[in-house]
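**User:** Hello, beginner here. Are you able to go through the protein record under this note? It all follows right here:
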Amino acid sequence: MNPAQHISWHDAVSDPQTIFDQLKEKISSRTAIVGVVGLGYVGLPFAVQSALAGFDTVGLDLARDKVISINEGHSYIGDVSDTQLQEAITEHGLFATDHFAALADCDVVVVAVPTPLTKNLTPDLGAIEAATQEIALHLRPGQLISLESTTFPGTTEEVMKPILESSGLTAEQDFFLAHSPERVDPGNHQFNTKNTNKVVGGIGPNSSELASLFYSSTVDHTVTVSSAKAAELVKVFENTFRSVNVALVNELAQLCDRMNINVWEVLDAAFTKPFGIMPFYPGPGVGGHCIPLDPHYLEFKAREFNFQTRFVALAGEINRSMPRFVVEKAIRIVDQSGVALSRSRILVLGVAYKSNIDDARESPAIEVIRGLVERGAEVFYHDPYVRSINEHGVLMLSSDLSPELLGSCDLVIGTTAHACTDVAWVVDNSREFLDTRHMTKSIGTRPNVHLL
């Protein structure tokens, strides 16, 4: 797709119809041009899916290296193969740019930018606000803006809408605004952008109808809720639900450690019940872009209503305590083997926040590494998916796994259960192995294995 060939709103020849009807017709006929702002773990897969669904699509990102990589057909996101990306480019016209001016030609603009937390665990909406301000500079009648970034209820209507209306245009009349929270699960081979149910809510009935129509034309199934605020709350609740349940089993793991009971045995038996329970498992902590962050967005918004989300706060506290618990258990194991931690060598096996992906964002393994280093241990890590880390003050390169490395370490801590890891071989070549993910379940009891 050549940007110079785009037909702008002002150049379009149309019957005397309302702005709403004209945009509805463009979406229905798939002649609408789609812009995706932010080409990360959410934005790039959606841009590819939008193109494969038949929409001319332009991806926008300020990172020039991402733009170049996409236009050359090279994907940097594990869930998008080079083949898929190249098909979207050559057969469906996808291209990337770092110029916001391209949005003037877009009929639908999807915003998928990061929403991190500050050091005080409060929402940082800087990326959303900056993207919205750029969109406002190029806003024209007949555009649908949809926010996919995870955020607290009210962001779309209370933060984005005023910025967009500073252009002189009016929401629900001149342009349309909605929220459709992303549900990306990196590394999930069963559910992807296309076949994961898409929740949609607009700031008004016109926005809801257009957003639902657009997403229904792009993915397999949509679930339309009454408002953008409801859609925003759906996402933060989903991840808060996970956070609370993970915290429950993490707390149980700490209790079982004191009681000398195998927490994995207890959970496996409990989850045989065919009703009233669902599996959640403990670990060294929680990582990624959802569970460690999103519940705090709900906690932040609740304060506006003089309401305390006590489960949210407690779950976050428990989950954040797990890396420290792992470090303390590692210290006990090393001490029992007669080695002072300050003279010990420890290998951390896996730093991705979950198995079989290359994403180390907010990984608890990094907090484990930092805790061990602060206590004087010499620490190495190995991860076939993550060749280097530079997060939260930890800068390291992955070490090659070998019998010599394993044998030279006083303790190996299994923190990510990658399928490619030969756990039996690792255990056989290790002096002591601390298993925080029950990755040794298939090899049975070993005298040098310590469970979380």
Confidence is low (pLDDT under 50) at residues 1-16. The two ends are 53 Å apart (CA to CA). The CA atoms of residues 21 and 42 lie 29 Å apart.
